[in-house]
Structures are given as structure tokens and as C-alpha cells.
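Morning run. Coffee first, then this:
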Amino acid sequence: MLIFRAEFIPPWVRTYGAVVLAAGVAVNLISSFSLYVQALTIPGMKASFQLSYTEAFVLIASMSLSRVVAGLAAGVLASRYGGRWLVIWSMFGSAVGMGLLGWSPNYWFALASMIAVGITSGSGLTPMMGMLPPWFRVSDRGVVAGIAAAGGSLAIVVTGLVIPPLDRAFGDAAWRYIWYLLAAASVVVGLLCMATIRDATQPPPTPTSPTPRSSHRPRRSGPTNWPMQVYTNPYVWLITAMACCSGFIQGVLTSSFGAYIGVEHEVPVATVGVLFMVIGWLSIASGIIPGALSDRMGRGMAFGGSFLIQACGHALFWLVPDISTFIVASILTGLVMRATYTLCAASAGDYVPVYMAPAAFGLMGMGAGIGSTVSPVIAGPIADATGTLQWAFAMAAVVALTGAALGFYLHMKGRPGQAPDFRPQTRNGTGDSAQS
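And here it is:
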């Protein structure tokens, strides 16, 4: 038993960092619902409001764009003032936005509600992921980010389980009840965060063991170069470009998966739900495994490999639109569904001082949001003009190859000097909380 503990149980499991991680999983779950649920609810919303593909995809793009702006601003604010209350209030705000979205009487009210959900969910997810790095060592951050990202994967699984029965029971109105359920769940997560999470604080220097100057975290109100130390870092921008590629790919999947397979190729809704659930189950490990590999072989190699797999999956959707191919493509997609998100979260504290991780992750989130906003805006008009969403998956495959090239370029550039590995203060004030 002692061998098992020493070999397989990481030390951080017995620290407060594990509590923060559990809250991170829950916040990822709720925030990801607002993205992934659209893949299977857009057909119902399209039918309820008699929308074209372009109008339907504008709904998705509006949420993505609002998440971009909110995530970027929240990351900067969390780096300076802490993220606890941003996370808490975002959960309650999301509940209000989701409830209003479910009640929407017309397209314009739904559009406004989509924007509200995007703002509230985006302002919570970025600070939550940025709160993780200070509680863990650099060598653990890939795995930890993957575990947090698994909450988003669970959202896909639950979506695949819940939506088909609701669709059978309520038809085109099922999407309303889905948003009502998400609103209730968001309230629960908000209460959980209020009871458990807190911000990391700077460990004070002690006379007996002075801390080197380079390893002090500047006070949140002190650094005059905040947040330019993040915004002028070329490595952060390179990862942001890969996040943009990933967002483009995710935007195609979430906006086009249900309509492409279920409507264009007449696959039953239940089967589409099963395929989406397969992606979800596989994606639970899709962040943990790449994250763990990145801790050992470097972030760039992990980025590049995951993008290559995404390119293969979307090329199959594009080139061979058949049910058997859809199964294979869904499996490939699920294997790396959350990889880029995890690797961005793990990288956020690698190239800047770790207390600036929320700002770095916010910038990466901006890249992902831009990609997810642009892709449906492009795919919708093309689908209306050609009568098929097939070309959306072709674009996703090309963008995935671009992301792979950027990942391998990051690996070739090598890793710069590691930013100081600041560790937060514990309740006993020793400053060795993450691993004591």
C-alpha cells in the first residue's frame, strides 16, 4: 500500500490545491455546456424561429465573441486583483442568462441572451483556470490542467445523454428546457465556489530562510509593467495563435456537427447523440494525456501531435461523409478534443511570472474565441450558398494542419528560461502549500 501511494498518488492530492482543482472541474463543466450544447440544440432553435444557417450561426458567433471580450478582461483583472469573486459572480450571472435564453420569445431576445451567457461564462472560466498554476509545481501543471479540462468533456457526455430524450419528449422546444437545467446547475456550482475557493497569496520572506529576489512574486498592486509583460511575450502570442486555430476547429464542430450529420445525411437524432457522447467520453482523457506528455516532452510537441490528429478527423468528415466514417472521425476528434485547451492552461504560467497566468490564459482564450467566432460566420454563408456544411470541415482540416506546424515550431524554438515558480502561502504561512 505504501508503494502504491508513493508511486501513483501525487502529493498535491492532499493539499488545498486539490480543492481548487475540484472547483475548476465544476466551472469547466458549466462553462463548457454553454458551448457544446449548441451542437445539438441549434436544429431546434433553427426550427423554432425559422432561421437560416447564417442567422443560426450568428447566435453562436455572438456568444463566442462576447466570451472573448469577457475572458480577456477578466484575465487581466484576475492577475491584479484575484479571481475568486469573478468566478463566483460569473456562475450566478450565467444562471440568469441561461434562464432568459430558454425563455426567449423571439430571435432578437435569444441573441441578447446568448451575448449575456457569453459574457458571464467567459468572465469566470479564464480566472478559474488562471487560479490553478500558483497551487502546483510546473511539472504537475499539464496533468492538473487536463483534469480541470475534463469537466468540459463531461459536459459533452451529459449533453449526449440528456438532449435526445428531451428532444423526443418536447420536439423543437427541447432546447428551452435544456437551458433551464443548465441555469439551475450554474447556481449550484456558484454556491460550491463561494464555499471553497480562495486566491493564492504571496509567501512572506522569513529571516531564517531569505527568498532570492527573483523568486518573489510582486504584489498585485505593484508592478508597473502589468499587463504588458504578458502582451509583449512572443511565446504567449505563438500559443495564442494555436488557440485561435483550435477555436476555429471547435467552432466548426459545435456549430455544424448536429446539422451536418443529422440533417444533411439524415442520421437519427439518437445516433447523433450517441456519437456526440462518444466524443465526450473519449475527451475526458483528451486533456489529461496530452497534458502529462507535455510535462515530459514539451508543450510544442504535444500541441503539434494533437493538431495532426484533429486534421485527420476533420478530413474524414469532409472527404468521406458516411456513417462508418463518422464513427471513426468522432473517435479521432474525441481523443484530442480538449488537448489544446489543456496545453494552453498548462502553458499560461510557463513563460510569464505565474501570478500573471490568468492574463496569459485570457489572451490565449481571446485567440480561441476569435477562431470560434470566425468559423461559424464563414461556414454559415458558405453552407447557404453551396447547400452543404461539408466545406466547413475542409476548412477545419486545413486550419488543424496550420496549428500542427505552429506547435512543432514552438518545439524547435526551445523553451525559454522558466519564469519563477511562485508558490502560494498556506494557512500556516510557510509558503510551501502546493507540495507540502
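The mean pLDDT is 78. Good start to the day.
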